[in-house]
Amino acid sequence: MPVPVYMPQLGESVNEGTVTKWLKQIGERVEEYEALVEVNTDKVDTEIGSPAAGVLVEIHIQPGATVRAGTVLARIQTADESPAAAPPPHPEILAPAAKPAPLSSLAQAQGSQAAVSSGHNGKSGFISPVVAKIAREQGIDLHAVSGTGEGGRITKQDVLDYLAQRSTPIKQPAPAAQPVSAPQALEKQPPASIPGDEVLPLTPVRRAIAEHMVFSEHNSPHVTTVMEADLSHIQAHRQANKSALAREGINLTYTAYFMQAAASALKRFPLVNSSWSEQGILLHRAVHIGMATSLGEEGLIVPVIKHADSLSLTGVARAVNNLSNRARAHKLQPDEVKGGTFTITNHGTSGSLFATPIINQPQCAILGVGAIQKRVVVVGEDSIAIRPMVYLSLTFDHRILDGASADNFLATVVESLQNYPA
Length: 422
Prior knowledge:
- By secondary structure, the protein is α+β, with helices and mostly antiparallel strands.
- The protein has helices at 103-108, 113-117, 129-138, 156-166, 182-186, 204-219, 232-246, 254-268, 313-328, 403-418; strands at 3-6, 16-22, 29-30, 35-41, 44-49, 54-59, 66-68, 72-77, 222-230, 274-277, 280-283, 289-291, 293-294, 300-301, 304-305, 342-345, 365-369, 373-379, 383-397.
- The strands form 5 sheets. Strands 9, 12, 15, 16, 17, 18 and 19 form a 7-stranded mixed β-sheet that branches.
- A hairpin with a 3-residue loop joins strand 18 (373-379) and strand 19 (383-397).
- The radius of gyration is 25 Å and the shape is globular.
- The protein starts with a strand and ends with a helix.
């Protein structure tokens, strides 16, 4: 009997993945453990190896489809079997099917994601963990949501559209004789196409970024506060130590200093290291700082430095080097982009002075670091001097933080940078 190729569980909290590319086609021979298919989970591409040597005889899941861990992706005919013995293609789930759960229960449940990820309903079909999580956090009865997915399945976009409608006051219908204004008429229409335009297909990474950013901006009130810091002490320390660290293979970047300052401030202000929930504010005891890393035209990814508060400057610098290099080489593991409690984005590397980043949900805040520039500043009582200055912006969830608490946190980061020990 042909050997099934299952969608693996690629991380503790990674319950599904999107097939992006088949590296072998039906009829081609594949060796055991040879890369067979590429899947994407949370913007991380992973190659899935063949469980046996033989010939690829069936492909069940086409590129672009998102499936749960345990789904049969393909089948391999081993050398000692007859192709006639292959059963007709049909999707299988490794885990036993769960008893159908009412959608209202899924919206309110606080149990494990494994329980909701296998939920089905006659109206909406499979309820993905992402959909169930949004419904649970926002208190949505999924019976009220219209599904536009295959077979009426409720997708993440369906839930986001429902939230947008729910948060918009119901307007009284205008009189029939009253024409619809131009902005209203164009609101839901796609952009006009001009001859010569080209449509670039959405990659899984770009689609994931778009969905995550829209969800974040819509679901938490964003406020940004900006301060500037004098990096004279940081610059002097880096000049004095970067050569020694370079001999150990470590590139001492400014990012390591910002990471260390943020980790220290997060321990002093634990409310910034938290997440919002309807049950209360969830304080995270561990400090896991995400580092937004550009992948060029492909988008960006946020690898996470775990327990950043326990690392020395050298340890932080080593982690920054390791994660950023492997991110650009597409060699991160799915678990390495999960579990962040705070994020730093160094947009200044491209020359940006300051920005208002979008919060990386479900976190409370994100620190934006601008370009380091020499500027004339007032020092002492009445003196001026040229100093390496940087703008720091903190975008925060106003449900959790007020302006004063956010400013206190950012001021502590500034103080750490300006008074860095020699």
